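Just wondering, does anyone understand what follows?

——
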Amino acid sequence: MVDHVLRLKLALLASAFRPGVALARTIGVLLLAGSVGTGLIWLSTQVDVSLETHRAALVIVATAVSIGIAVAPLSAGLGSALEPRRFAAFPIAPRELALALGAAAAIGLPAVLAALLGISLERAWAGETAAVAAVVAAVLGAISIVIVSQYLVVVGDQLSVSTAARRTVTAIARTVIVVALASAIVTVAVVVVDSSDSAAQQLVATAGVLAHTPMGMLWAAPGSELAPMAARLVAGVVMVVVLALGWGVIVARLLESPQRARADAPRSSLGWFDLVPATPSGVIAARSLLYWTRDPRYRFVLLGLPLAPVIMMLAFAVAGAPLPPLWLLPLPVLALFLGWFSHNDVAYDHSAIWLHVAASFRGSSDRWGRAVPPLLLGVPIILALSPLLAVWSGVDEVLPALIGTSIGLLLTGLGISSVSSAIGAYPAARPGAGPFDQPPSLEARAGWSQALSLLAIIAFMAPTLLLVWWGFSDAQWFTVAGIAGIATGVGMLVLGIAAGGRAFRRRAPELLDLMLRT
């Protein structure tokens, strides 16, 4: 029985390498997993367990990565193919099926990453008195990650009773992975660039909390005193045994219980079109929202947007910039690129642009509709994260400037993009293409359009950025900068949509011809 399930798992893994979008997605996942694995091994050679901050960072990074690995099967959609209820129609004993599914879980990318995480822990403690405890903790930790991932696959399958629910589960899993990796990267950055006592205390306190949780107790065991170390290792053994026994019980229960009915979305529903006003701008907004939520070209950009601020923070930190004020950087950078991304939005329609050309509506309606998705995404993120990042930065009275500058960059970017997407459109990847697919032709004006639109956003926001700079000398300027940023953003958005709408209606036939030729 086990060998049949293992062959099925290998066949499922091989199916991920089919040519097309699946292959591009697989390559992207492998690159990400390879980067994580390589980073773990490299960090294990750089950590000095004699330092308290390094031991604390080791616990935090290992815990964050283990959480990301555990939810990985839900983000890929592969693990659900081996959900226990799919074998209910076959005469298989529950114990044999539980063993077979457990063995199959040990084959795949999550299991490999779990093993690399365990090896990294062992390498970090190699040559120390706690080396044996590190080996035991690494083995127990890797096994627990694999078993927990199977539990999550079952839970995800129970929740995925509709198309919307399945997408929600996948989106949550991917969000957890991004947050986990970001937490690990930030922890490493804090250790590298911030040697202050406050940063060290925060790391130690966080690691201490994680050490008392099932997620982090095994990773903290080698760095503990003898009695806590023994207690955590024993607790790890008990946890693995309970998880293994519980897995057999769950498999038996799922084989006996009836299937949950999967409710498909009502066929009469129009989705986003039911939620928007029955106006040209509303219809175009609904169509744009469909692109932003379902088109792989947009999804890839949305996943990559949070990486730009992190990379910039690391670059400045490595250059010697103090860490606390750097927390003011991510939100404006994210707003800048989110607004700038729409600078070639028309080209992403490809041949479907004929709908906008043939319809008798104002060009400003097209511009307003296309601005809705970035606004719905960017404004809540700015308002939600600004207070937190302002506190972390340690800069007094900076909150108005952070909110105003971020909103100003977003709105100004949308205003500039409304014009550039009409007068500077260039070929883009066709609908349905994978995130790594290139457009059939890419003219020189693509680079000019990208660079000029980005520079225009920064140029129009330069006065606000100057006021923010003055605010570091006199905090009163922060409030002025916030007001100036919002005023600039609103003005540029209105003017950009008006000018872009006229340009769109005037150049509509040329835009259609460009899209059809590419």
